[in-house]
Amino acid sequence: MNSRALLPALILTGIVSVGIGLTQGSVDLSLTDIHAALLGHHRPSLQHTLIMDIRLPRVLLALVTGALLAVAGVLMQVLLRNPLADPYLLGVSGGAAVAALSAMLLGLGSTLVNTSAFGGALLATLLVFVIAHGRGGWTPTRLLLTGVVLASGWGAMISFLLATSPNTHIHGLLYWLLGDLSGNHSVLPASLLLLLALIASLPIARHLNVMVQGDDQARSLGVDVNRLRLLLLTIAALLTATAVTLAGTIGFIGLVVPHMLRMTGLHDHRLLIPASALLGGILLVLADTLARTLLLPAELPVGIFTAVLGIPLFLFLLYRSRLA
After folding, report:
1. Structural domains of the chain, ranges and CATH numbers in brackets
2. What's the pTM?
3. Which of 101, 173, 254, 264 could form a disulfide with 86 if both were Cys (CB 3.0 to 4.6 A apart)?
4. d(CA 305, CA 178)
């Protein structure tokens, strides 16, 4: 596809995906109902309440969360120069999960659970900052190894919390770990953070194009590699922490989306980053719609459906790298 036509096509697809998310559910609604609700007609009514108070906030939450994870995935792949990197690779989600699960077990309210998740994610990021910093700064290998070790440690702590939790709490904890978009969250702060991240990424997009070729080439062209790497890690960590706070741990969006776009021939980060935000939001909206409607009246964690998409692509990438 022509790169100039890609963004308009994604915007149009995003509008369609939002329409699907609003119309599909336990009660099917028409586009006329959606139009009337958005304009404030027939208020109050069951349709208006269902759309404005339940479905629209959830669709917007999925849209923003998917965009956050996809942009974080692009930045992490540049940061680590690893095509299989994703936002959770450095253990950010593990720190958030341990803090959030601990808050849940203590019986704290949703606001404190969200605050704990964000604080845990930032703590995990700080540990990566401190431990991985060597005499020469942060290198991709050092960051990757530190993140993998810390992620394993967080995973052990999560297993311990689950093993020692009362049976009445297990279902809720597992549901959150697999991704939960049913929470009543305001997406405005996350939307502003996403917008700031996109604005901040545009001036450095050319540097990202060079950095993927290697540190030496980037330095020869005047790029301050250590400063850029610190900026990328900070932005990616904030985006990931926010996404985990909003919806728990949702896998594969940050891995799948950048590769789907690169497979179309898009490698310029000036377009890749905004395109990833759009496609990440679209995929998560569609995945959440499936999670809500496939086994009505039951609702499945959205992470199951993102894994169904992500695992085959992950295996394909491994197979292609073996042949290269």
Report:
1. 3-323 (1.10.3470.10)
2. 0.89
3. 254
4. 10
